[in-house]
Amino acid sequence: MSGSRKVTVAASMLLLLSLASSVLLLRRLDQVRSHATLEEVLFLNSPKWVKRLSLGYDGLLADIYWTRAVQYFGSKHVAAAGDYRLLYPLLEITTALDPKLIVAYQFGANFLQPNPPEGAGMPDKAVALVEYGIRNNPDNWKLYYDLGFVYYYMEPTNYPKAAEAFERGTKVPNAHPFLRVLAAQMAQHAGEIQTSRMLWQAAYATTNEDLIRKNAVAHLRALKVDEDITELEKMVARYREQTGVLPSSFNVLIGAGMLRGVPVDPDGKPYILLVDGDIELRNPKDFPFVVKGLPPGYNTELPKPRSR
Amino acid sequence: MSRVVHIAANTFREAVRDRVLYNLIAFALLLSGAAILVGQISIDIERLVVVNLGLTAVSLFGVVIAIFIGIGLVSKEMEKRTLYTVLSRPVRRWEFIVGKFFGLTGTLVVNTFCMAIGVFAALLYVSHKFQSSDAWILVALFFIVLQFLILCSLALLFSSFSSPLLSAVFAFSLFVIGSSAEDLRGFARMSHGLTRWLATGAAYLVPNFSALNVIGQVAHEQPISGHLIAYNTAYALAYSAMAICGAVLIFERRNLK
Questions:
Q1: Which residues of chain B have pLDDT under 70?
Q2: Which of B94, B186, B208 has the CB atom closest to A29's CB atom?
Q3: Which of A121, A177, A292, B102 is 20 to 30 A from A149, comparing alpha carbons?
Q4: Residues 197 to 216 of A: which have CB under 8 A from any B CB?
Q5: CB distance A235 to A253 below 8 Å
Q6: Exposed, middle or buried, A108 (CB in 10 Å: 0-12/13-18/19+)?
Q7: For chain A, where do the domains classified as CATH 1.25.40.10 start and end?
Q8: Which CATH class is domain A37-215?
């Protein structure tokens, strides 16, 4: 083998070895610095300063901060974290850099308001962010909807503010007609489950953001369970009124012509009829937002049902 | 091995002769000016400003030197036809490349050492005493030197096959992209299908300068973990070795006639 060929072979092997090593080391570095990039936000958390330092490349920087916000929330959410203190500064900087980035306001409306681990537990910040969005995008009806949504899911629900937000939205050109319905329902405080369903369906329909959509689907599934169990409990009470005894199983209700089959949850798993007439879910962990059908003491460490 | 050392020593001498170390004067002026200014303003962030400004200046001066000297290491020798004199002696092409790399790295290490003295002097001026957390500044300086290792190897890699102008563009672009490498991997994680594979591949191929930048952390007196120091060192060595191997492979095949 000639000298040059030996060098080529040795250099090629060393190149592959160092390439593999650098990729492996990079993966270890990612583990060591899992939130380092985001924590750096704390060092420069003034939106005005970030905008000045962007040297006019605000659009690109907004995209980077938006990615960071989604990743921050996603990684914390998976770990059921109790602290999302960087979510608001990240969204604030993102929207300061690009005030037209509607999805960032929608994200904030959905995840700043709920209590941890489902969100940051900062309803005031959610309102502030969406109001900032409205100031910069007064003709976007979706933001008024988001604002009403935040007020509706506040604890306690702020019906007058929610109604006012939906009402403001109806005045925007090309606003969706359901804003008018929502405004009326807020004013009446009526039809809680129907209103909630309408809100979550709209939340799903008005965004392409995956996390917001998944959150909406989880709430819609929980609403379906709550509605099913409410109906089943009414049925059990009616049977007891008619016969004087509690039904021992769903088959008894089927035999009495009250049910067509054994009722199932949205995953197709049958509900459980307890001896005291209560109805329980078979796998409550699959429905993080349900109010009904939970075993006694089950949800002490889970998020408060129905909060966003 | 002695041939590599000779080429490295010559590269260092040449850089000194080219007045590269004159940048130290600009650095000294900048830092002493900033130290006096923040010392007079006294807004409780004197230390923060000096550390941030000092380390950023060390990094930027070094990056500019690494790129602009590195890109000319091969092409300048070819232009002046001194390369042929060197290679006509019993010097192998790979020895030339490796020697050039160590020569430039040595220049930057000396430059960084002088600047580090300036940073600590300015720090002493504004704080009147050193504190234990100032030791982390040494780690930040070490990481900056690791950045230079990677940049020198990249500049040399591009210099082995491209013109100086294009080499500068490539090296500087990689520096900018590499400084946002973690965001790039973030984008890759959010994409799907083939795009995800391609983006992940690209994200792992570009140098990761963001992990080597701990200026913000040390300015806020936050400690740097031993794991980070170990992994960063190993990573910078592995990445530089990869780029140097690439440069050797290209230069071995290059027609110098």
A1: 1, 35, 38-45, 256-257
A2: B208
A3: A292
A4: none
A5: yes
A6: buried
A7: 37-215
A8: mainly alpha
